[in-house]
Amino acid sequence: TRPAITSVSFSPTSGNLGIDDTLSVTINAGEVGLIAGAITINAVDVASTLVDNGDNTYALTYVVGDGDAAVADNAQIPISIVLTDAAGNSNTAFTTSPVATSAPAIDPAAPTVSNVSFTPVSGILVPGESLTATITASESGLTAGDISINGVAVDQTFGASGGAIYTVTYTVTEGDDDISDASTIPISIQLTDASGNTSNTFTTSPLAASSPGIDANSPVISSLYFTPQTGAMIVGDSLSITVISNETLLELSTATANGVTLSSFVDNDDQSYTLKYGIAEGDADVAANATMPLSIQFADSAGNLSNLYVTSPSSGLTPTIDAHSPEISAISTTTADGYRKLGQTVAIRLHFTEVMALSGGNLSVYLNSGQTLSVAPFTADTAKNVTYTVQPGDFTDELDIDSLRLTAGTLRDSAGNSAFLTLPAGSNLADGSDIQIDGIVPADFVTGSVITVGTPVVAGY
What we know:
By secondary structure, this protein is mainly beta. Helices cover 0% and strands 42% of the residues.
């Protein structure tokens, strides 16, 4: 008697089986001890998987392979089962497969990715900017597998754009790999269908001509130093600031030194840059035990800004700065107000804003009475006295200083700044005194004849 198969059932009974998924098949027969004849599931030979359960049932295992026939969810999986007993009797091939509602679908085809394009297609992306990759695949309904752009996982940004088109977004982060504009951006894309089939890894990136570059590493300023590093600097001197970075071809974004905006900028082509600070009248002074405030920031050609560098060299590596030239702060006198006549004197005192020294020439003091006084060279003084003696012909209703001039030499403070010889507004000599000068001698009175009328007559006038 031939063996008889009464029914076949599947596990699972629903869902989708993809490549490498397993379908378990249970065969109900009328006896034990049967062996496999010709057995196929979905046209695939599975005879070698037959197991006798010892209870008139037998088990088969079908593993979905790439290239197997697809079976829709509303279709039956084709089967053909022949069993043989010990006497060599075989049943007629059993082909009654479970109905579609008791069988899974079979999807033996992995999705494929055919193309990837980028937006934007040119330019340079910097940290914070984004690149959108548009993926063209073989089917709709896919989900993200492992997806990376420029070595960064972006599968969490995956989205469907309709049909078999999908997008992911890569946002450049500081420290990502830089990609030159002449190179391609590395990509790695895997997609998965509803059956769990995963596409082959797609790595064909758009050509460099259709890709932007990536500059994900901002320049870094690591240190700087001054030239000179010691000594005293004054108005008109120039301080060189050499800045050390990690890149060439940087541009100046912003720079200040001692509160002054700097614009003189030279690329030394060795990742160092030189800025010039020209000391101007009225800039902040820097004492011997102080540091100079500064703030420097560079930018690369992509627009990435460097760190804002504010660490000044120590006071021992910083020159002092005296940016305030000395001046005449006041002109005074100890002489009392009133008239001064020929031969009398006026004591005049020149007051300075700081210690000054006169060398190599005299300081001329021009009076409005017509005389010029001369101050001889001196060292380290904050004031200087000069005496005016009224000379014949001198005259003024109010003695004052008209101007101060150097005949030669220099009048400087201890740092070397030349003094301003501008008269002190509101503090000139006449602002604090009222001295009249009359050095004009009256002329003799000469008459031709005198006619007297009455008495007395006075002679000798």
